[in-house]
Amino acid sequence: MCATDLESVVILEQRAYEFPWSRAIITGCTTVPYRIWIGEIGADKAHVCQAFLSIVAEEAHILNLSVDPAYQGRGIGNLLLRRLIADAGSQEAAQIFLEVRESNQAAIQMYLNNDFNEIGRRHNYYPISHGREDALILALQLRFD
Predict the structure, then answer these.
(1) Catalytic hit among 59, 111, 118, 133
(2) Which domain holds residue 89?
(3) Is 99 a catalytic residue?
């Protein structure tokens, strides 16, 4: 991601989530050493997906993975996830963690299909229209040393 991508990142975030990250949060992510990936397709380079990856020491954390709703169900999220896994491995991460809404069955299945395992739960982690819902904590072991 570069500075000129900020507006399209904010727009995609708003399209993808009922409770999106704010412009301030997204801008803040550009001031720390997060790895921010943007996925574009077609001759017009339509911005269809994005992800925020934190790598500290030997741990990677997928902070956010978004696919434009108009492009969901086409395997784009899976391609981006594989890119994040490869990136984390190339940066010497031993494992990757993430949180996912317990109601997001499509995302959970994608992560399980990529060898992530459920290792915990964060109670009342995500806002919903009538309260809060739990997050499942998933992890993928990249190295065994």
Answers:
(1) 111
(2) 3-141
(3) yes
- How many domains is the chain partitioned into structurally? 1
Tokens 């072991």 belong to which residue?
A: 141
Residue 51, pLDDT score: 96
pLDDT tens by residue, 17-70: 999 999 999 999 988 889 999 999 988 888 999 999 999 989 999 999 999 999
Distance CA 136, CA 119 (A): 8
* Secondary structure (DSSP) of 82-120: HHHHHHHHHTT-SEEEEEEETT-HHHHHHHHHTT-EEEE
Catalytic member of 40, 99, 118, 126: 99
Active-site residue 111, yes or no?
Answer: yes
**How do residues 23-36 score in pLDDT, each as one tens digit?**
999 999 988 889 99
